[in-house]
Amino acid sequence: MNEHQRTDQEQRRFEELHELYSRGINPYPHEFNRTHNSLYIVSHFSDEHPELLCDVAVAGRIMAMRKMGKATFLHIQDQYGRIQIYLKQDELPEFYSYLNLLDIGDIIGIQGFVFRTRMGEISVHAMNAVLLAKSLRPIPIAKEEKDEDGNKIIYDAFSDKELRYRKRYVDLIVNPEIRHVFEKRSKIISAMRRYFDDMGYMEVETPILQPLYGGASARPFITHHNALDFDLYLRIAIELYLKRLIVGGFEGVYEISKNFRNEGMDKTHNPEFTMMEIYIAYKDYYWMMDMVEDLFGHICEYALGKKEVHHGNKVLNFNKPFRRAKMFDLFFEYTGKHLKGLNKAELLQSARDLQVEIPSDASAMKILDEIFSQKVEHHLIQPTFVIDYPLEMSPLAKKHRTEDGLVERFELFVNGNEIANCFTELNDPIDQRKRLEDQALVRADGDEEAMILDEDFIQSIEVGMPPTAGLGIGIDRLVMLLTNQESIRDVLFFPTMRPE
């Protein structure tokens, strides 16, 4: 930021910075030995035994400043909350000499003792104080007033959604309540990891840059490796690499990964997103449904302390068992149409009858998927396993053991959104090659998201892959669900944004 781009406030702060330097004050020291945080002090202070907190060192960002002659009250904010600081001019003459050069947003360190003010607020009486970082850009601070009835009115809040996403570091400072969403996100992932580790499954890492992309139906991002002079793809899924590890002899592997899909953005889609996939040898999708019920209960208990979750005006119940419903039964339940066994032309006509807009060149798989998306999904509020998908929609899933034309697959839907996807994995290399060859034909007909044939993957299961169950869970959507958020951008620190 050059001098000509600065606002008046920014220019004043730069002038304050130069004044600090001219007085021999370092506005950016190397360290500060903090001993306590705001939460600990507020929760552990005792009026009967104030001596227990007679020597504390706290640090944080100035969020409020009230000068009263030769005394000043500050509120500083750290990761855990806010605490009041009391300063007296005669006890801190050096710090007071440049107090007028400090602003809201500056970071300071305080050493002193804890006491309760006459107004009843637990505070730190400063005996030493030091500037730790001068803020050169002002931060927006909401103003508070009370109406005639004594109700708090907040205005000038930092509430512009797009600006909050772009300036997340400011959002975290001035809207600290959003930190709870990300703290819960961390707990949700930790709970999942702990559950799998306790079950004896191994966390692994697979390539982000892949010579071929596979494991899902999506368009990839493409990059180029200069030294080797060939294109690589950012992964759209991790399935095919994890299955290679099952072939190699690991019997339970999982990965929590960043995946990338070159697709549109909406409330549940971001080009960069987090997935968990796990593959367990000698299991099937029936076993995996039982495990998912147990896993989700564990996550809710660990991260939220309960299995009933409020989302909007709904209460979602994660006590087992979850509902299990066949996909074609749900089609009939919510559309009145029997769609099983119909060819592409018949499916297209059914979509038109249902007023579902479908391009005439869409594949049968796309038609079914769009009808389900528009006519069924929003009805699935409580946790529901949608089971037994048509073979055309699931080229990596094993054929159903009793029903022709179907595969052993489920998707878990909650609050109208898909949260998890599972197959009894296809381990017949002849069938797998034929399915991916069929996908190539669909791709040649114009479906850019159809899967491509990965010859090395086929060769790996030709070596022999045991019966296996595989599960994928969309972490971002799960966090949205459990933290009562409506947009994926609200659970990502730094969502993808169009350039300003």
Describe the protein in words.
- With 500 residues, this protein is of the alpha+beta class.
- It has three domains: 3-133, OB fold (Dihydrolipoamide Acetyltransferase, E2P) (Beta Barrel); 144-174, no CATH class; 179-322 and 382-491, BirA Bifunctional Protein, domain 2.
- The chain has 14 helices and 20 strands.
- The relative contact order is 0.09.
- The protein has an eight-stranded mixed sheet, sandwiched between helices. A five-stranded mixed β-barrel has the order 1-2-3-5-4. Strands 9-11-10 form a three-stranded antiparallel sheet, with no helix packed on it.
- It is 31% helix and 27% strand.
The strands making up the biggest β-sheet line up spatially as 8-12-13-20-19-18-17-16
CATH secondary-structure class of the largest domain: Alpha Beta
Largest sheet: 8 strands, mixed
- Rounded average pLDDT: 93
Number of domains: 3
Cα-based radius of gyration, to the nearest Å: 29 Å
Please tell me the CATH architecture of the largest domain by its name: 2-Layer Sandwich
How large is the share of residues in beta strands?
25-35%
- Extract low-pLDDT stretches: none
Could you tell me the CATH topology label of the largest domain. Answer: BirA Bifunctional Protein, domain 2
Provide the CATH superfamily of the largest domain.
Bira Bifunctional Protein, Domain 2
**Helical coverage, percent range:** 25-40%
* Helix-and-strand structural type: alpha+beta
